[in-house]
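Worked example

This section walks through a single chain of length 107. The input is the sequence exactly as stored; nothing has been trimmed or padded.
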Amino acid sequence: DWSSDVCSSDLFQQKLRSTLLPAWEQLPDFGLYMDQVMTYAEKCFAGVAEAEQKLMTPAMMNNYVKGGLVDRPVGKKYSRDSLAQLLVLCLLKSTTSMDTLKTLLHP
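Given that input, the structure is written out below as tokens.
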């Protein structure tokens, strides 16, 4: 669980700034199951989150899909587009409300 104390800390902000998301071409171009997406996200943000913190949970992913922030999986697999959407949400979720995220992603 990402508390506001953790997300607002100077160390967290410094780690987040130094995190680079993979380029589009580096994202897998085949569908990933939910657990594979979570593992991929954890590797992308390995230096940011503490070991006990979860960047993404199944409930979060389902809520993002239900909220229209992430494309629905096809056959339980998330596309490259969905993976990119989820990675961006991992970056923004600590500082941005769900309503603001909706506006940013779907103006």
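What to look for: Confidence is low (pLDDT under 50) at residues 1-6.
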